[in-house]
Amino acid sequence: MATGSRAQFSSKFGFIMAAAGSAVGVGNIWGFPTQAASNGGAVFLLVYLLMVFVLAYPLLVAELTIGRHGQANPIKSIQSIWPKQKIAAAGLGIAGMVAVSLILSFYGIVAGWLLGSLFAPIFSLLGLESAATWVESFSTERNLVMMVLFMLITIRVVRSGVTDGIERWSSRLMPMLFVLFGLMTAYILTQDGASDGLAMYLIPDFSHLSSDLVISAMGQAFFSLSLGVCSMMVYGSYLSKNTNIPKTAAQVALIDTGVAFAAGLLILPAMFVAQHNGVEIYDASGALLSSDTLVFTVLPAMFDTMGSTGIIISILFFVLMVIAALTSSISMLEVPVSCAMEELNKERNTVVWWIGGIITLVSAIIVFNFGDLFGLVITATTVYAQPILALIFALLVGWVWRRDQLLTEIKQGNPELEQGLFWKIWPWYVRVVCPALIILVLAS
Question: What are the UniProt keywords, alphabetically (predicted)?
Answer without folding.
Answer: Membrane, Transmembrane, Transmembrane helix, Transport
